[in-house]
Amino acid sequence: MNRRTSIKGAVHNPEQVLVTADNPSRLIRRALILSNKIHGEIFKSEDITPVQLAALSVLEEQGPCTKQVLGLGIDMELGNVNGLVKRLAERELVREEIDPLDRRNRVVSLTGKGLALAVRLLPLARKVEEAFLAPLSEPERVEFRSLLAKLGSGST
Q1: Which of 49, 58, 82, 156 has its CA 20 to 30 A from that of 74?
Q2: Residue 105: is its pLDDT beyond 70?
């Protein structure tokens, strides 16, 4: 079969594609795509991902913490936190040290460069949130955050 041969019954018109518009998983994916697009536009010259920025934010707010605590703060499994910390350390934004209270743990903290970047970028992160939530009224924003928190906690 060559490229010009059509498969019988194949949909060729995008307007014919059946989409369940109210499917929650689809809506969440679309919202995440929009959020990432806004993040990319606002941070295009900064070379930082949303997760990296979240890590800097946790460390700026929390101070030095173990990788386990950092992972909880950004909802990331420890195996993935290790790679994230490695990439941030390569950029000299964070440093790792052995935890003096428990030598089995590593403590992650911001470097001076990481703190300066966090302080400079965190106000821009609020712009991402504002742009993302712009279509919602303030009461809708409160409800949206509440519903997301409820979904995220797994409670009913």
Answers
A1: 156
A2: yes
Which percentage of the chain shows pLDDT scores above 90? 55
User: Is the per-residue pLDDT at 125 higher than 90?
Assistant: no
Dist. CA 95–CA 114, nearest whole Å: 9
Q: What is the mean pLDDT of the chain?
A: 87
The 10s digit of each residue's pLDDT in 50-69 is: 999 999 999 999 999 999 99
For residue 17, give the 3-state DSSP assignment. coil
Dihedral (CA of 132, 138, 144, 145) sign: positive
- Residue 34 CA to residue 25 CA, distance in Å, equals 14
**Residue 96: what are its φ and ψ, rounded to 5°?**
-115, 140
Q: How far apart are CA 64 and CA 109, in angstroms?
A: 4
Q: What crossing angle do the helices spanning 50-62 and 78-90 adopt, rounded to 10°?
A: 90
Contact call for residues 121 and 104 (beta carbons, < 8 A): no
> Which tokens belong to 46?
């900064």
- Non-local (6+) Cβ contacts of 103 within 8 A are none
148-to-1, 29, 137, 156 alpha-carbon distances in Å: 47, 13, 16, 12
